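Weekly sync notes, structure subgroup
Attendees: PM, AL, DS (notes)

Item 1: joint prediction request from the bench team. They want all two components modeled as one assembly rather than separately. Inputs as received:
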Amino acid sequence: MATSASDAPELVARAHDGDPRSLARLVSLIEDGSPRLRSVMKELSPLAGHARVIGLTGAPGAGKSTVTSALVRAYRDQGLRVGVLAIDPTSPYTGGALLGDRIRMQDHATDRDVFIRSMASRGHLGGLAAATPQVIRALDAARFDVILIETVGVGQVEVEIASMADSVAVLVVPGMGDSVQAAKAGILEIADVFVINKADRPQVQQTIRDLRNMLALTERAPGDWTPPIVTTIATTGDGISELVGKLEAHWSWLDSSGERGRRRAARAREEVAALALSALRSKMGRLPGDSALGPLADRVAEGQIDPYSAADELLDALTDGAPPGQHS
Amino acid sequence: MATSASDAPELVARAHDGDPRSLARLVSLIEDGSPRLRSVMKELSPLAGHARVIGLTGAPGAGKSTVTSALVRAYRDQGLRVGVLAIDPTSPYTGGALLGDRIRMQDHATDRDVFIRSMASRGHLGGLAAATPQVIRALDAARFDVILIETVGVGQVEVEIASMADSVAVLVVPGMGDSVQAAKAGILEIADVFVINKADRPQVQQTIRDLRNMLALTERAPGDWTPPIVTTIATTGDGISELVGKLEAHWSWLDSSGERGRRRAARAREEVAALALSALRSKMGRLPGDSALGPLADRVAEGQIDPYSAADELLDALTDGAPPGQHS
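Output from the run, pasted for the record:
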C-alpha cells in the first residue's frame, strides 16, 4: 500500500514546504529514472523557474569543492537558501559512490537551508542531459534561491552540463598544469566568469595575462558579456565576495540582454530532446524481428550491410512500424 | 565536375591499395559528416573486419602519447601496419586544433605504413559514437593491421570511446595523483591491461598493490580475463615488449572466448543507434508548427508544460506525423 507521503503531489508539496527528506526522495526518483517521474514533473513544473543556477567547472585539483563551500557560506550570509549538485565521474558499472556528500555534508549538516547532493555521471534515463535539468527543477521548486552545479570531470559531457547553468564559473590554477591545458579548449569558452583559485601561488599575473590574451581573441558584439577574471584563495575566503559580485553582475546582464530566457529555453530543449531520444533508443532494442537494433548491428559487424543502410531500416521500423519491403 | 578520384568506389579502392592521401580524404569526409559518407560506407564495409583495435586511455600526464609512439615502433618492428586515432577534447565551438598531429607525424612522416590522425571530440554527425567506428572501418579497409585509439580526456565519452576497442590499455602513473583519482572509477573498470607508466618514479610497488586489491574485489567467472599489470618507462622503451605480449594474450583470449564478436557487435550497435538517433534529433528541430522541439521546449522553460508531456508530443509528431489531438 502506498503511503500518502509517497504520493507525487504530496511529496512535491512537502519538498516545496522545505522538508529536506522529501526533496532527497525526489532527487532519488530522478536518479533512479522512476516511472513516477512523469507525475512528479507535472507537479514540479509550475513551481520552478525562480532559482539562479550557477555552474562551476575546471580541471581536477583547481579547488572546485573549496570554492563551492565558500560560495555556500557567502550566499547563506545573504540569507539565501543554497542547493549544491555535484556531478561525479563515478563508475558506469557500479553506480555512484557518494563519499563526497558525506564528507561535505558535515559542514552544513544542521542547516536546513543548504542541500548538497552528488549525482553519478552515468546511468540516468536520457543521460545527464535529462537528469540535471530535472534535479535543478526539484531544487528550484523546493525554494532554493541559488543552485550550484559542480562538475568534476573534464570531458565533453561535463562541459555540456556546466553550460546548462545561467552563469558558468570556470576555475583555473596559476600556471595552468598539463591537465588544465588538455581541458582548456573545451572549458574556457563556456566561462562567464574566470576564477584563478589558489592565487597565493606563483604565476598569477602570467595566468591573468594568458586569459586576457585569449579573451582578446574572441569576437564580441556590442552589448555582449566580457568574462571578468577574479582571483581567489578559497581556503581563506579571499576574493569570494568579489566572485559573488561578478556573478551578480552577470545575473543582471542575463536579465537585461534577454540571454537568460535563451539559456533556459536551450536547457529545456536539451532536456526534452534527451527524454524523447532515450525513449526512442529503448524502443530500438524492442522492435520485432530483423529490424531491431541487435540483428541489424550484427549484420553491420559482419560486413553484410553498411551502417547507414542499417540506420535507415531501423528508422523505418521505428517511425511507421511497417516491415521493410512493404513500403510503396 | 567531380574528378574520378573523388568518386566513392575509386577513393575507397585507392585507400585500400595503401594511398595515404585517399585515406586522409576518407577520414575528412567522416569528420565533416559529408553526405557522401553513405556511398563511402557501402564500399568500405565489405573490406573491413581484419584489424586489431587497441584503446589507450588514462588521465592527462600519464604519458599516453609516449606509450602510443612506443607501441607504433614495436608493431612496426613486427612488420605490421599501424594506424593511430587520437581523440582530442578540443573546443565544441571552434573545431579541432590538430597540433598533436603535426608534432607527432614528424617521427613517422616518411613511413607509409603508419597513419596518424587527431579527431576533435565534438561536431560529428551522431557524435563520436558514430564517427569513431567509421574511422576505424576506414583504417581497417586501408589494411592497417593494428589501430590504436588514444583518448585524451577523462570524461564519460572518452570511457565509451575507449571501450569500443577490442582491447583497452589503461595508463596510470605511480602514486596516482588527484586527477587519476577523480577519473579512476570510470576508467579503471574498462581496462583489459593496466600500464603503470613512468615506472622509474617512487611508489610503483604501492600502485601495483592498489590495482591488485581493486582487481581482487571484482567478481570474475571461470574463464574470464584478469587484467594483467605491466610497468613501463615509455621514454626508454622499458616494458613495451611485455605490454605488446599482454595485448597479444588478450587478443587470443578474445578469440577463444567469443568475446571479440560480442565487442564488435556492441560497437556496431552504438554506431547504428547513434546514426539513427542523430537523424531523429535533426528531424525534431524541423517538425512543423507547435510540435517541433523549439516551441515545445519554450513551453517547458515557461512552466506551461512538463518535460515528459513535451517529449510525448514530440514523439507522436516524429513517429506518425499526425498533429496532437487527431489520434484515434
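Discussion: Confidence is low (pLDDT under 50) at residues 1-5, 91-103, 322-328 of chain B.
Action: AL to compare against the crosslinking data before next sync.
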